[in-house]
Amino acid sequence: MPETFVPDRETVRARWAVSLVFFLNGVSFCAILPRYPEIVRQLGISNTELGLAVGLGPLGGLAFGLLAAPIMKKIGSGKTALLFQILASTAHLLIYVAPSWGFLALGFVLAMSFDAITDIAQNAHGMRVERRYRRSIINSFHGFWSLGAVLGGVIGSLCAQFEVPLAWQGWGGLILFGAIAIANFPFLLKGSDTSERIKEVSSPSASSANEAPADLMGETSGDTLLESTPIHRGKLGTLALLGALGMILVFAGSTEDAGSTWGALFMTHTFHASPFVAGLAFVALQGAQMIGRFVGDPIVDAWGDRKTARVGAAISFVGMCFMLVWPNAVTAVIGFAAAGWGVATLFPAVFRAGDNIEELGHGVGITVVGWFARIGFLAAPPIVGWLADLFTLRYALALVPLYALGILLFSGALENTTKADKQAKPAGAA
After folding, report:
1. How far apart are CA 92 and CA 83, in angstroms?
2. How many angstroms separate the CA atoms of 146 and 290, rounded?
3. CA–CA separation, 153 vs 145, rounded Å?
4. Helices within 134-234 (DSSP H only)
């Protein structure tokens, strides 16, 4: 078994910088979510209209998300992530101050357009750092996103409880989060996004010492970087894999949307909860997801992504069924928490699997599977809103256990390689 690898200072600093990018991405948007009931009330719109406005947002993500790969190729993943995060925070302001349904929908479209590129770029940069660490750390990045989401949910809930004007919250977020993003840029990795994709570094001869990338991460010659063994597939196999990975994100994204778009409204309409208590549904989902992501890396190292996904899907299914069969404020919080825990590792797992598809160019796999995720964010809100107006939100949210079954169906596309498997097989081995 190889000795434990210790990354250099630049790599450690970059890990914290990427974590901060994920954190800002989570807190910026999620602070809006507990204000949905107030936005609905001020604009005088229905659940269906809110669901349609939220659902239109991912159209921007679908349209602009595919631009992430060429933009990253031009300016790099780190700069792309921070630039489009600032643009997304600017678009969030329009959601806070929207005077009509049309401006609300426009705000969601712009925010999701910029967020799609930010999401792909921050994951691509996180994969660079993970390769330098030679072990799974991508779940911890998403854990910081969830930490930001929880903090954003608490901020939004407190602002709603104390009747802070929506515009004040919007401007405050833009100024604070934008300034932090700008200050964070110098700490991200420099150089090409393909720098860490070397699979094996052979011991160089004296004549080639200046050519060997031995200082890439502060390691000695002969060490290898964390990289999956290439699996060669045909075009149909690659497309099928991308489709299966994408469908996992469709169902995972729809599960997250159940808490983000409908959690506060479900608590308000069904149990007449106060604004702060209503926000706890979303906080429970994101809080459980945050914990699941921070502990997810050692679990994935032990079980592999496939088994981890299947166990999580089962937890989500049981928890949401429990909430729907015995509905009250307590079981609602438990159910949303189970859903959050259940999908905690899915986005990191699918982004990693997409990024490791050898047949695709750099950034293409992660861009395509990220694009699929927007389909779930696009389709779920209007469908749930329409069913809620027909039957009530309780019955509309019965879709969430079905999402868990969908994850189980497509989970075979995920890698089942554990850390022990990777250590037992040298890089480049057949």
Report:
1. 15
2. 5
3. 12
4. 138-161, 166-184
